[in-house]
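Figure 2 data, in text form.
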Amino acid sequence: MALASGVRVPARALLRPWALLWGTTLGRREPAAGGGGDGERRFGSQRVLVEPDAAAGVAVMKLRNPPVNSLSLELLTELVISLEKLENDKTFRGVILTSDCPRVFSAGLDLTEVCGRNPAHYTEYWKAVQELWLRTYLSSLVLVAAINGACPAGGCMMALSCDFRVLADNPKYHIGLNETLLGIVAPFWLKDAYVNTIGHRASEQALQLGLLFPPAEALQVGLVDQVVPEDQVLGAALSAMARWLAVPDHARQLTKNMMRKATADRLLRQRDADIQNFISFICRDSIQKSLQVYLEKLRQRKG
């Protein structure tokens, strides 16, 4: 969890249609390193950079919301837009999700979005969190997480929604859901994804204690699929992607949907109730005071 930084884009403008016109504000294109044709040009937005390899059918999507890739409303929205663009382009079959910020994959939810705001903003923000999870969890593309930094809370949420997770072997790069340590609670649908990944008993302990696992323990419990030296994370993710893309898309997609649909449907059926539960919880005086204290500690540490 961390403070966001940088210029803020009006959130309502971002969230209106998901299909914003690429080539305008969010469609800045940049030449890829070493040149290449139009199909090899990077595109992206202020907070998300996409590096496509059309020949391989794979794109690398990099989070770049410094200093710690906090999941601000803008970053959540730009991630969904970028993924939707790739899903709608039949050239691409897979996406590698990684970070452009040193030593951190994502520090999780942007606490400034849920502290000192009004219920309308909390509603908008939580809808965006739900939307990102649903979009990634049910994506028709193969998603591989190349976790090249610390990955707590919302960062872990993104990694859990991927099909395969590679973590850098650095003792400082912990992964897990540590919400309880901040006095908040993971939503039921994220709990379900955790149970699906590491089992009920391991999830029960990890969620209640707010455990963050170092690489070796994350691998042992099944939270990640592979741990490799830090300079080999992207290469390992590309190798894993090749194995997944060797399977015919239609069979893999149907199997993925069969495995994940029930978990996603539970949120879809209760989406409004989940939002209301989040608002009623986050608006409690005790929760707001706890978040204010934590944010003040972060400001002092930053100062």
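Caption note: DSSP finds eleven helices and ten strands in the chain.
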